[in-house]
Design a protein that fits this description.
alpha+beta; 14 helices; homodimer; 464 residues; 8-stranded mixed β-sheet; 5-stranded mixed β-barrel
Amino acid sequence: MKGIEIKKIFRETEKYADKEICVAGWIRSVRASNVFGFIELNDGTFFKNIQVVFEKENLANFDEIAHLNIGSSIYVTGKLVLTPEAKQPFEIKAEKVVVEGLSTPDFPLQKKRHSLEYLRTIAHLRPRTNTFSAVFRIRSLAAYAIHKFFQERGFVYVHTPIITSSDAEGAGEMFRLTTLDLENVPKDENGNVDYSKDFFGKSTNLTVSGQLECETYALAFRNVYTFGPTFRAENSNTPRHAAEFWMIEPEIAFADLKDDMELAEDMIKYIINFCLENAPEEFAFFSNFIDKGLLDRLNNIVTSDFAHVTYTEAVDLLLKSGKKFDYPVKWGIDLQTEHERYITEEVFKKPVFVTDYPKDIKAFYMKQNDDGKTVAAMDLLVPGVGEIIGGSQREEDYDKLVNRMKELGMNPDDYSWYLDLRKYGGTKHAGFGLGFERIIMYMTGISNIRDVSSFPRTVKNADF
Amino acid sequence: MKGIEIKKIFRETEKYADKEICVAGWIRSVRASNVFGFIELNDGTFFKNIQVVFEKENLANFDEIAHLNIGSSIYVTGKLVLTPEAKQPFEIKAEKVVVEGLSTPDFPLQKKRHSLEYLRTIAHLRPRTNTFSAVFRIRSLAAYAIHKFFQERGFVYVHTPIITSSDAEGAGEMFRLTTLDLENVPKDENGNVDYSKDFFGKSTNLTVSGQLECETYALAFRNVYTFGPTFRAENSNTPRHAAEFWMIEPEIAFADLKDDMELAEDMIKYIINFCLENAPEEFAFFSNFIDKGLLDRLNNIVTSDFAHVTYTEAVDLLLKSGKKFDYPVKWGIDLQTEHERYITEEVFKKPVFVTDYPKDIKAFYMKQNDDGKTVAAMDLLVPGVGEIIGGSQREEDYDKLVNRMKELGMNPDDYSWYLDLRKYGGTKHAGFGLGFERIIMYMTGISNIRDVSSFPRTVKNADF
């Protein structure tokens, strides 16, 4: 006995209509009189349930089935009957129902609305709800869309290392990794921790970005991307920060900031279009129950030509706006979310790239512009959120890069391999980073990162 | 000026023939007389180089170009001329060559054969060699093939957590993760490490497997897979072990061991076929220069129906073989590589699933067979390597699972969420794990895991 995937029945209904079929799934609801009953069955392959009708005169185990608890898993055999006059397009008239696994009356997902906060405490069961079924299916589709987008363009996918002995940005708090016995940390003759006894023979951390390693591959394969987990040990207990999250970082050689922005725009549109096409039921759900403006916002993105404005122009726009911001605006500040949202939502009313930021608020590796004050950086701002992508052209000039590292107190010797890329056939190159959870939140309207990660890792929380 | 990707010129030659084009790339070799010269140019988008011919009478900077060092990056503009009589199918007659980035005479990749060991010391430059260009392009294609395979079958991709507070198999040495100050580890009143002060408020590790979390998603979405990095802090300095590697772990509900093996067989064939179709130049290279028998072995896999044998039958075959093994054979031992290779290479001469292993050598979560001695496990053995996949049906019986955990000294309370899957609509389900680097080694003939990982992490080595 083999259950047909319920998605197939919805997508290729003609093929199964009036035929005897077998499905398997979990009971979302069951209601029955003395003579007949209805089951809403979901098998996880599709957002929607299939309706099962069962009758006492056909089923020897009618009473058992009528009293099953929500969450029980069953196999159902019966005829698929089209019901054009009803709410659901078809139903199965059960001829046989076999119980695969029972559930109990204390199953935590009863047929009522549960708060997202409560559902976080049962993260192992929440994908069985409508909301999380939709979120995690879209997460899966979006991940695939990203691979498809880059692979169809000939990009090489690089697995940059997770364990690292360098700090990618000279910033970002990192998790240390160790096999030393914390109860009894070995010390050297000076009383310092003896990392020579650690697994790697030195101090190591979890990566905060694969960018620097990705650059080495871009200067070999031209167009590359990495897509993997990254980590921040930041004590930020906000709806937008997690200690573990996935990031997409493409890197392109023989390319400048303009090419980088074109790539980012194409990628964002591709991801959203792919998900909209492949999960219409899920987006209808989000648009109805989570965020009314969602579909308009997404359609606006995929049909707009993204705007471009320099940081300096953006600051002027903010100063001239007459708006009162919590963080005062002047040239040189890092734009806050309130500023970003004003620019994208009120000035341009569509996604906008802000370029050429002051070098003092950006990372050491960004290409210095001729003005001596700014770097060839870009942030993509989108309505409803603010910044969603950050990128730049990379400094390809060996001397400028070394000088900038020294200005920032970094030791160039620690980055000799990175500097080599500027010694041996360096090229213009550029890249950007997209936080994967951030685009999932954007596409679903879900406002807390804890609700788009399977088992979220945040301050004081690493359950499951 | 925008360089056309060299791959496009090879794949759609007619489109560019006799036209003026521009390419960009890195010089693999340059040789010149006083009046003309040849450059082998590679831009990373394709395994092969394109030949550039340049002549003194056409190029103002002829002397500069003739003396460029290997590794320099250039833009070349000129006409693409078909050369049906020559070794290469076409060449570019340069009209303009612009230097993008110089290289130096001490560029570490000179035009000679370098040992793989030496190339590991310049892991940031080695993707610019033929061998690593081929390895990492195939790695990228294989990763994509895996996503394509599962997504086309409706599987949901789950990002299971990397940071974990549980140990997936009750085995496997793990890396500890901490933000505690190792110079001064906080202790509680009993003198033990005070993990309540650590980032997550408890002791955490890097995952060794996403399986248990994947099971929670399979019992919601039916068919799921995870594909992400996993970690082992094992002090094994062998060509097959790394501390960081990627793993594919599908999990399927309403499915048994037979379904699991069908899925594994289909997946392996799909990955190999996809790579063979999309990287013929790379496979020709491996087959010529790395492993003469490679293509035969891969073709044997994709055209065979995989064999099936139980562990008990396999032990009988080994005992009856008359072969002398380093590790003596008797029922109950864990099969060693020499045993596995005998079974797959000499008995079956094709891939073979060995099933129903003694429960004492397998993990707690595997489904116990009715004989009381074995579990519904499977290993896939392939010629040339031995085990490449390990999987099982999972124990779906709550009581049997709890009893097995207790027998093994595990505390069921630590796994309450995992046990819940057997309380609330449990179903038959199964899954397997494929070490990603292992299949890349298998497909390329590369015998050391350090040569299929971008920046390998092994005992005492976390460089770059």
